[in-house]
Amino acid sequence: xxxxIVSVVPEILKGTFSSSLxxxxxxxxxxxxxxxxxxxYGLGKRKKVDDYPYGGGSGMIxxxxxxxxxxxxxxxxxxxxxxxxxxxxxxxxxxxxxNVLTCKKNILIxxxxxxxxxxxxxxxLISKEISIGPYVLSGGELAAxxxxxxxxxxxxxxxxxxxxxxxxxxxxxxxGAPPIYTRxxxxxxxxxxxxxxxxHHKKIKEWIFKKSIQKKLDS
Length: 219
Prior knowledge:
The chain is of the alpha/beta class. The chain is about 35% helix and about 20% strand. It is built from eight helices and ten strands. The chain has helices at about 10-15, 20-25, 65-75, 95-100, 120-125, 140-150, 165, 200-219, and strands at about 1-5, 30-35, 50, 60, 80-90, 105-110, 115, 130, 185, 190. A hairpin with a 2-residue loop joins strand 9 and strand 10. The longest helix has 18 residues, at about 200-219.
């Protein structure tokens, strides 16, 4: 899978992708991530990418020209299954949609910045608008990183133990995540449920299933 990310502040993403799970996915050749600095397509000597909004109002708006030029270059090199814009007012990102994205070959992500972007970008260049929550960040970089990591951990060969992915809370559509424990068995008088220490795999699975159902019902 290849993911291209367009950003005004690419440094944020470079640090995020230089370690841990995403780095492992890249080193294994499972995921190919390319970060593009939108300012390289900026206007004039100062490589300007933003301007004041028509009709007045506060804040600056990402201009259409730099984004179009960047997209035009990338689209001339390959076809993209999705052209995503990270925005607070987009469709809420979910584990279900993350699973859908794992089936894609090429994904292009645009990170917003400032007050927003020219509406014509959204109308003509974007195929999907995604939000990671009903709140506002300074830009879409961290949101894009969330999307990329969610996809990465679903790709075969990335996780050391792929079975752990199956029991992720949102991967279990009709169930919640069961309680999990590790050593020590007792800490400050708080004990691990005896069933988990029994070695009786069938009963343990039944316990986990019941707890998962109960978690979903309580939520």
